[in-house]
Design goal:
Number of strands: 9
Radius of gyration: 24 Å
Helix content: 40-55%
Distance between the termini: 29 Å
Strand content: 5-15%
């Protein structure tokens, strides 16, 4: 548990943000970081990192989120077992992850919950400020705002809300969006930063294709909230929805999930739809009542498996290599890679220089992660949720067709090929599997404790690979 509380930051952006807040003044950090900037998040981090370890900050905001969720649940249901949705919310796998590992959404979710609570309490000024802070933490959370106004239409029996009041708060939210756009624009204007990241992100979003976008939404949802959750929820909605207003509200809700969750990112993708956890947890209790306890029993093993995994410490270990040489690593691990020498990033550096380094007498090494990334890519202590979609194909494959590859401790070393004939099997994948029952799914899956995933794996005879490598120019392969 020590590693869980006092361990290092394990998610992609945080090492960059920690470097920013520890080397700049409070006002400087508002305009720093990669696109999109997160001014209020960096401001909050600048203050809190002076007091708390990085993951304790996540736990602090996680505790605040649970307290606010308690108030929301009590406000909606008033009596009965209104504590049940609180537990469901807290142990959704994605909620647990962001509440124990600092991410931008760790803070954004707290302000989202505060916005929901103040909306239900009809506190105009507080609602405006909470919403403004949420968007100031993460610009993308603008897409979370419409979900706030679905509460009166989903909880019609529990909440009495005048339509005029709803429209008034919708107008306030438009004012917040406008104020936020002005706020971000002023930061970019006075800091002299370009906004080219906008077009890059939009290009990446629309280049995915409908099938990949559907996959991204599906995997994000079932990894965030459990593989059985969408099936249970469809049954509950079919059975309980009686009005067109409720049906429209749920349609808008899942439309928002699809809109935000469609984009592929090389980090914990599910955090982008974390706002959905609030309505889902409350709806489970609305439709199931005391039987929502069985949802807790279903989710608990998933979280326990991840608690054990994250208690083991960081998986990002500095490679034990000779100094002053060359290391090839996947660019996805840029924030976590330290090496006293030259680093070449796969899909991020000019790898044609490898020949020049080898000819000059430099030794060139490659890590295990560089072999399989972006598949079996580590995100925190888990594999990326799309990591196991392809087996035996990765970005580094071409290197095995160009060089002889030998083992060096736990890593690989590339060498110039000195033979007369290249093997016809160069680049052929060699995939490894664990043939035991419990090895059917790899331990680093976020859903390793999900009974639904195990049922699927057994029925389909699925077995995850434990890894793979390739035959080199000599036709030789090494177990790594």
């Amino acid at each position: 548990m020590y590693n869980l509380i006092f361990g290092p930051a394990l998610f992609y952006d945080i090492p960059e943000y920690l470097q920013i807040v520890t080397s700049h003044s409070f006002w400087q950090v508002f305009s720093l970081g990669h696109f999109p900037i997160h001014p209020f998040f960096l401001g909050i981090l600048w203050i809190f990192i002076k007091i708390f370890p990085v993951n304790v900050i996540a736990m602090f905001f996680g505790a605040l989120s649970i307290v606010i969720f308690y108030k929301i649940s009590k406000l909606i249901f008033r009596k009965g077992f209104f504590w049940l949705p609180i537990v469901v919310f807290a142990i959704f796998p994605a909620v647990w992850l962001i509440n124990t590992n600092l991410m931008v959404e760790s803070v954004a979710l707290t302000f989202y919950l505060l916005s929901v609570y103040l909306f239900l309490r009809e506190k105009t000024v507080g609602f405006f400020m909470a919403l403004f802070f949420m968007v100031g933490v993460h610009l993308e959370s603008i897409f979370w705002i419409p979900a706030i106004f679905l509460f009166p239409y989903i909880f019609t029996k529990e909440i009495k809300f005048e339509k005029n009041s709803i429209f008034r708060y919708i107008k306030i939210s438009f004012c917040v969006v406008l104020a936020s756009v002005i706020f971000y624009s002023l930061i970019y204007l006075f800091s002299g930063r370009a906004i080219s990241g906008t077009t890059e992100q939009l290009s990446a979003y629309f280049s995915s294709g409908i099938l990949r976008m559907t996959r991204n939404v599906w995997l994000s949802f079932i990894r965030d909230f459990g593989s059985l959750t969408p099936f249970i929820f469809v049954i509950l909605l079919v059975k309980n929805i009686k009005s067109k207003a409720s049906l429209a509200a749920w349609a808008i809700f899942f439309g928002l999930v699809c809109l935000i969750g469609a984009n592929w990112q090389g980090d914990f993708m599910g955090r982008r739809i974390i706002f959905a956890a609030v309505l889902l947890a409350l709806a489970f209790y609305k439709y199931l009542g005391k039987k929502a306890f069985f949802v807790i029993l279903y989710l608990l093993p998933i979280v326990i498996a991840n608690i054990i995994l994250y208690s083991t410490g960081s998986p990002f270990i500095t490679p034990n290599l000779p100094k002053g040489q060359v290391l090839i690593e996947t660019h996805y691990l840029t924030p976590f890679t330290k090496y006293d020498g030259t680093i070449l990033w796969i899909d991020g550096s000019d790898l044609e220089k490898i020949d020049d380094y080898l000819i000059s007498g430099k030794r060139v090494f490659m890590t295990k992660q560089a072999v399989t990334a972006p598949y079996m890519l580590l995100v925190g202590n888990n594999y990326h949720i799309t990591s196991l979609g392809k087996v035996g194909d990765s970005e580094s494959r071409f290197l095995f067709k160009k060089y002889a590859v030998d083992a060096y401790r736990d890593n690989l070393e590339l060498k110039l090929f000195k033979g007369s004939q290249v093997s016809g099997q160069a680049g052929e994948p060699i995939v490894s599997y664990n043939q035991s029952f419990w090895g059917r799914l790899v331990r680093r899956r976020i859903d390793y404790g999900d009974v639904g995933t195990w049922i699927w794996a057994i029925i389909t005879s699925h077995r995850d690979p434990t890894g793979w490598t390739y035959k080199d120019m000599r036709g030789i392969w090494l177990q790594i």
